[in-house]
Amino acid sequence: QVQLVESGGGLVQAGGSLRLSCAASGTIFAINVMGWYRQAPGKQRELVATISNTNDVNYGDSVKGRFTISRDNAENTVYLQMNSLYLEDTAVYYCTLANGGGIARHYWGEGTLVTVSS
Question: pLDDT over 90 for what percent of the chain?
């Protein structure tokens, strides 16, 4: 079984920075995509960023230029560096793993709350 454990959420002032981490454990295939989605109150879950095992990255439009995703393949850990935070970045951030190539099985973490205050 695969487990994803997020950490690093919290309260930060607008304009500040925060770094999220997510460690995956269990049977992790060499070909995989890890990433982050977020869900704000009353809104649909949206893409933040994803990164493949070959470091191909993809960002949601609302975070481009402010957030940076990275990963440590040896530790099966993905990071999200969030800079220049806006009030509207307030959300629960979920770590995700698409495990394997082709028809990959998807896993989700329990989420970590990021609150940006004015």
Answer: 94
